Amino acid sequence: MAMTPDVPRLLSHPRRLAIARATLDNPLTIREIADRLDTKDGAIRTTVERLAREGLLVRSERSGRRTGMTAAEYQVAPIHVPAVRERADDRGKPSLEENDEVLLVPLAGLAVAARVLSRGRPAAVAWAVRTRDSQLSLMIGLRRNSLPEERDGLLLELRNDGVECGRLHVGESFLPTELFEYADGLTSASCRALPPSA
Question: 7-89: what fold?
Answer without folding.
Answer: Arc Repressor Mutant, subunit A (1.10.10)
